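ok trying again, last paste got cut off:
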Amino acid sequence: MSLEGSNFYKLSAIDYKDNLIDFSQYKGKMLLITNMASTCGLAKSNLSVLADILTLYREFGLEILIFPCLQYAKDDTDILKKMYEIIIDYSDKFTVFSDINLIGKDIHPVYKHIIKYSKGFVGRFMKWNFAKFIINEKGVIVKMFEPGDRIEVNEKIFKKLLKNKKVQIEEREVLKYETDPYDLENSSDEELFY
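nice, full thing came through this time. structure:
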């Protein structure tokens, strides 16, 4: 195992219910890690597509870890509980963590790791919400999606996960959010958060 992978599995974080989550439990799983804020205009579109991705691929070893961060939009901490409810409303299978820092001297260790090993994807800090990182079954960052990048349910990286597991998947009619999740003209995050 690479240094990057072995260091990743030494990490831990507190979930939104105040449980300590040891990242060693993710060995052998593919992860999608993202950060979010409630007032970000990307919230509804990203949560809907992430919920569909998790619906399709969780049984094959994919986990989605969401780290709320109130620093970008300067959200009030009173809205944090509502944000957790909204995330879980999209999928109760997401692993949701407590509010973390992504900027400044108190950057959370998970994101210090991501910044260190992201091979130029990030730079020295996270620039905005919904930067998405795919971490393979060995704890190595293999792909990054910028906040505005489209991520699709049938993304090649997820299909690769299935190929490695030697499993075939059929398009199933279990997706909850079948409309275009990136159609921002016909949706508003304001209805979700206020």
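cool. The longest strand covers residues 30-36. Confidence is low (pLDDT under 50) at residues 179-184, 186-194.
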